[in-house]
Design brief:
single chain, 376 residues, mainly beta, four-stranded antiparallel β-sheet, 36 strands, flat
Amino acid sequence: MAPFQIPTWPLPRLALPLGLGFLVGLAGAPGNPPQPTATAMVQFIDPSSLKGSSSMLRPLLFDQVSDFAEGVAMVQVGSRLGYLDTSGHLRITVFDPAVTVASAYAESLALARAGDYYGYLNRQGEWAIAVQFRQAKAFAQGLAAVQGGTKYGFINLLGEWVIEPQFDLADSFSEGRAVVKVADRYGYINTQGRLVIAPQLKDAWRFAEGLAVAKQNDQYGYINPAGVMVIPAVYDGAFHFSEGLARVRQGRFFGYITPQGDWVIEPTLAFAAEFADGRAAVLSGDKWGYLDPAGHLAIPPRFDYAANFSEGLAAVQVDGRYGYINPRGDWVVDPTYSNAGPFSEGWARVQMNGSWGFIDITGEPMVGAGFHPLNF
């Protein structure tokens, strides 16, 4: 199992849930990460002067970005980091030059790394909780899982230990429960740190829609908050419930079940994603399309890759370029970009020629999409 790391920001690829399934690695774009192209942060200017230049229709100059969360998105140029608001203004400057990676904000704090250790930044870009943890997760439900010494525990928003380090691994809280590992088994604690499901599972995931994936022997099923296996462990792979359905794998094929364990879509799919906005990306042959919750093909498979819908649009790839479609499969943003992320708070991160920027749901770049250097 990989250690805790700050989440990656380029478009996530779908992957089978092997292992605990809730740790995300730090990475650049798929393949080789883009190399820094500037040494200064950037300031937005009125893009109207750029309209006549076809080469500047999508000026994307950031080396790394995050999705928008809590009204801001992380941006990085060279070694400098800051956060833009949804109007394109640089609202937060990360002042400590030792910070090399910073995540999106969660509960008003951003997980950041300086050297080999992690801490948390406040909304002024300063350390709210000093760099001191070997591993750390974002805050959820007022608590964050961190590694103190060789064990994991939980701190509050003031950086105080609420649940002392005692676990071999710990995940973020979800629906009042957090997965913890004791020796070679997994269980769950509540926000007071009390074990509510004994560490007896070979693998366990966070709760979603009242159920959690759990591994018993060599198969996966679902437990309720009391720890009862309400959907028997009979699947070779299982995933979170989303919009009332969960994708599961039997042998090499995927299908979807209800919270009662009944099949809604039989396991005949080569690969499948979770439902979002009433659509689920599925692989048929070597092309991706989308199903509706009844199992009908809502968007025929014609894409080289398809991501989840978010805020009514989904990033899809055709001939090596990403664009966005609506739930009917119509192009809303033509395939233009080398990489693309989900829409969040009205904006999506997109990449071209190794650099990142943001577009709105009509495909227009963020206001002030032309840049000039601003040293700070």
